[in-house]
Write a structure and sequence with these properties.
about 425 residues; alpha+beta; Cytochrome p450; 3-stranded antiparallel β-sheet; 19 helices; 12 strands; about 10% strand
Amino acid sequence: MLPEPEKFDLTTFDPFSSEVGRCPFDAFETLRSSEPVFKVPDAPLYLISSYEHAQQIALDTTNFSLEFHGSVAAAEVIGWHSEDAEVKEIFANAQPFVESLHNVDPPDHTRQRRSVTSRFSPGRINRDWTPLVEQHVDILLDQIPVDTDFEFMSEVAIPLPIRVIAAILGIPLDREADYKRWSDAYVAMVGRKLSTEEWLDKARNQVDMQSFFSRELDDRRNAPTDDLLTDLLGATKEEPPSLSDLELLDVPQHFLVAGNETTTQLLGEMMRFLAAQPHLFEQIRRQPELIPNVVEEALRLASPVLGNYRVCVADTEVGGVVIPAGALVSLLWGGANHDPHVFENPEMFVPDRANANRHLAFGKGMHFCLGAPLAKLEAKVALTKIVERYSSVSIFEDSIVEDTRSFMLRGLRSLHVRFTA
């Protein structure tokens, strides 16, 4: 019997509160069952928690834009800038903010996406990168002690996607810790508000990451290689160019971050589900053909990216509610993926769920995550090799540490498990 979800008072509901961060899925259930298109009190922010309405807005690129960073509503709700003098001084040495891929609309989105589509087609990912992923999974699992407690996030879930995306970009593998630090700083303000110290950390890391990629791109100009950075440089020389010089520096940063943050949390949550229910692990060992669907179900239930923002560009009715032009909108993928109108018994992990792949964990429409096939490949390879190597897995519940700071990003900081040979 699953516990009853915690109920939230919508008259005082604050998505940035610690209570929502601690129990986001319970908060989304309250919203979805009461007001699936919800206006946050005293803020120009609407929360969309049902599958139907989240999908509607994601597909409506006429009335809802991803270019929300410059909007008045985003400035009021999120606070995109710090007024601290030291933070401003650090950012003065950074590249100016430029819209790219994940926060840009057509025709710029179409142009930019063209520069990387060939390397991220599902066919090429499965054909060219499966051996790379298998190699790194084997290296990591070879180092795992059998029949002994170990920390899964730091030993497997964090290094695997970082090493894979680093190899694809063509950047050195020996800076793994830097890539993780930069990635965490890059997403620090997604779904939460930063303190001055956090702003300083974000600013310093952003400048470090930009400087690193600027040097790497200079190296490719002098000595091109078969990697994504060289491809991106080539995109600036096309007629017309697929990328501007400013976009050239931003896009690889986006790929580094997006290429590891979501996959890390997918791997961690998938292992958590299976270790907590040993009969499911045994079922998958007996039926490895379920693994692709298990990955889809883990994405649905965990929803590592709980939401994305849009800005409404024209008064638009959604679910009987008129969202005014200029309002900020959060599409709560985590709410949509637990919608009982689409997924029966949505709080349960069902390895053979028939419609698991209908989840919105990677968005929907033209802005569907370009790296989704890679994230799924890494999870499938990792789980396949784990069930081949080990007879069971157990979890140490007291060791679980969740990141509860954001209502739009979700994941584990620590997860201790034990593999049995």
